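Subject: design request, 134 residues
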């Protein structure tokens, strides 16, 4: 995809934004209640414990909702339009969702409920998790 505004990498988010270096998606998991937490947070919203650490997940998900974007973000953006922006739910836990792009297929072929898997787009020192059809 074209020019992107990259996320700010902080100590709290580094494990997520840099985990794709080895092709693995990592999500914070609570040591006390075993719930996954995303977006990254300083404590578990389920049990309030502060024992969160990154854990590798399968990278498999399903598309919950999506939209096709037909406009570029700016005149400098060289992204091919349209492109699919989606919310996917990871297989590991109900309501464990990410906003992402669906790649590896024609945008008009994206469907709610389709199964997808993670792939990464490297941009500087960040690995953006994208999802492609299984």
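Subject: RE: design request

Done. Sequence follows.
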């Amino acid at each position: 995809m074209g020019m992107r505004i990259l996320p700010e990498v902080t100590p709290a988010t580094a494990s997520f934004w840099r985990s794709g270096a080895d092709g693995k998606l990592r999500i914070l998991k609570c040591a006390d209640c075993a719930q996954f937490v995303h977006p990254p947070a300083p404590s578990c919203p389920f049990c309030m414990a502060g024992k969160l650490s990154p854990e590798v997940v399968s990278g498999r998900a399903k598309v919950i909702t999506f939209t096709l974007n037909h406009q570029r973000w700016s005149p400098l953006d060289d992204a091919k339009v349209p492109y699919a922006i989606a919310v996917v739910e990871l297989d590991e836990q109900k309501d464990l969702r990410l906003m992402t792009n669906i790649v590896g297929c024609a945008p008009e072929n994206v469907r709610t409920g389709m199964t997808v898997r993670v792939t990464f787009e490297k941009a500087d020192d960040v690995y953006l998790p994208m999802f492609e059809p299984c």
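The mean pLDDT is 93.
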